[in-house]
Amino acid sequence: MKPVTIIRHIECEAPGYLENVLTNSNTQYRLVAVDQGQAIPTSPDDMSGLVIMGGPMSVNDDNDWISQETRLIQNAIENNLPVLGHCLGGQFIAKALGANIVQNPVKEIGWLPVYASSHVSNLPTWIDNFSEPQTVFHWHGETFELPDHSTRLLTSQHCDNQAFLYKDNVLAFQCHIEMTEAMVDEWSSIYEEELAKPSDTVQTRAQMLAECEQNMKSLNRMADEIYQYWIQQLDRT
């Protein structure tokens, strides 16, 4: 099987827990580090799937590499490759599918609940974990609108679209399911200026770290099921 391509936009927003799952499932992958000047592939021909990580930039920025990455995602979807996006990555997928990326009514930063928003048939079985609200990690100010012909999977009190599925193999998240404890520690230090005005949807660094160990265990368990579902789509390509 060809390797999965993972696109990273900034060093601290790495594949995280996803990397563990890929390694444990013997799924080959290669990292394209945009933050180090590595070129975005022009074609999906040499990959079995495409993963888009997060970052502090906006997909609405007027940069050549953003247009290039959007075209790559479009080509991957047109070629029926599995695509997976985290936060900014989810927004990239939504943009590639023709949806708008807009300001969320509030910033969501820290450990906050999400829950299943759709109960139609033939959804991935992992959605059952979210029949009751589950605490996951967030760090976003913008959000995606729902693309045509996609299914909203997760929502939250302050952000309508937390995850959607397009066809069976394109999965986009607004929240961060890829987190590790080290990443929470690093982000809450690097981006600490965003935490200057705590609120119901913005936690302090101390709050994040205090809740990290307990919430991370359940997040990793849920991420295991989600990532295994997506990896199974690679075999069907």
| Level-1 CATH class name | Alpha Beta
Task: Give start-end ranges of low-pLDDT stretches.
Answer: none
CATH topology tier name: Rossmann fold
Question: What does the largest sheet look like?
Answer: 9 strands, mixed
Strand content: 15-25%
Strand line-up in the sheet with most strands = 2-1-3-4-9-8-7-5-6
Shape: globular
What's the average pLDDT?
96
CATH superfamily: Class I glutamine amidotransferase (GATase) domain
**CATH architecture annotation name:** 3-Layer(aba) Sandwich
Radius of gyration: 16 Å
* Whole-number count of domains: 1
The H-and-E topology, N to C, reads as EHEEHEHEEEEEHH
What does it look like?
There is one protein chain. By secondary structure, the protein is an alpha/beta fold. β1, α1 (17-24) and β2 form a beta-alpha-beta unit. The protein has one domain: Rossmann fold (3-Layer(aba) Sandwich), CATH 3.40.50. The protein has helices spanning 17-24, 64-78, 88-96, 181-190, 205-235, and strands at 4-8, 29-33, 49-52, 83-86, 101-116, 134-144, 150-155, 163-166, 170-173. The protein has a 9-stranded mixed β-sheet with strand order 2-1-3-4-9-8-7-5-6. The chain contains 5 helices and 9 strands. It is globular and about 45 Å long.
